[in-house]
Amino acid sequence: MNSDAEVSATASPSARAISSRWWVLAVMTLVYAMNIADRFVLSTLIEPIKAEFALSDSAVGFLTGVALALFYTTAGLPLGALADRVNRRNMIAWALTIWSIFTAFCGLAQNFWQLLLARIGVGVGEAGGTPPSHSILADYFKPSERVVAMSIYAIGVCIGSALGGIGGGLLAEHFGWRSALVIFACSSIPILILLFTVREPRRGACDPGTEVQESRTSFRDALSFIRSQRSLFHVLAGGTVATFSGGGLVWWTPAFLGRSHGFSVGEAGVEVGLMNGLGGSIAMVAATFLMLKLAKRDPKWQCHFAAWLTLFISVPAVAAHLVTGRADAILLLWLFVPFINVMIGPTLALIQNLTRPNMRGFTVAVLLFTANMANLAIAPQLIGFLSDFLAARIADPAQSLRYALAFAGLTGIWGAWHFWAAIRWLPQDLARAGSA
Known about the structure:
Elements: H1 4-7, H2 13-18, H3 21-44, H4 46-53, H5 57-83, H6 88-108, H7 112-127, H8 130-138, H9 146-175, H10 177-186, H11 188-195, H12 219-228, H13 230-245, H14 247-250, H15 253-261, H16 265-294, H17 300-312, H18 314-319, H19 326-334, H20 344-353, H21 360-391, H22 400-409, H23 412-422, H24 426-433
């Protein structure tokens, strides 16, 4: 079993110290937080952008979701494969630079089409950040430790969502939505500097009992292996549907609070930001301590955990959008929003452990393709279409969004089923991947 020193065997003593696995995890988490913040801030700014460009909900759904997702997911597969071939640290640095520049361009856009093109650029940049980040972390942590590492990494979602919600809302109220986006873009510079303290590890350095394969793997071979891993298929499917039923709804939560409960842009941004940031961080930290307790147990518990969590939070997900009282809606959203990302850690750990070292970047890209199509493309657009459809058919058109969101919340039941289905083939699939 490789130690931290072996992981960075080619580094100098000082470089080995700064590139310890916990430092690498902290930096990767910050990069992920900025990825989420630059993505989420636009949903906080939906109402002022909609008003300035006179957009429908369907157009907003396309701008905030489909435009990002189509290019994020399309670029993600080849970039995921590239992460299995090149220096991953440098690839992350380029990705962070590109999506930050295009976030600034979003703030400079003068019409819908310019904003759309800038949003596409954000998607292409962000597509290159996550696969190499996951792959690096898998080479700094042993299989039994990855669920803890990935749970800590997933706290980046909470940090980024809080920054995008609270920061985006407050900056928009004081300086306008355009300035908010430019400020967010510039915030990536310190993180980019920290990123260059990370050392590139040897692929498969922490995988037990197998000789590391540095050979390149074709798309066909990687897809064939994924199809042959039935538990991996179900984990990918469960993660995809859970992302739709959780993150997909939250895209519209600031707008829902404004239309159905009278929140201003800043108030809604702060409320959702606190749910994601404060509540989400508490939930993620608590989950991380739970992972530390359970990490040495049979990996099947990770599937059970993800399944039950996805199922349970579906109840407040539906109820929060049906109740009419403002306080009741907020309470139910606090029982839903902070927990939507808790299943990320176990899901990512399962994916890394069910995949061979020279296929990890591509496999993560497959999850990003399916999950982000569900979260960024299908959810915003489908909910937007359904909201527009209902608006023309109910007495109070302003309430159409609440019914569309309540219906979408039911999909969590489907996601939970996939996690349970993965358990049947998990032991033999872990052995085939070399993680058992």
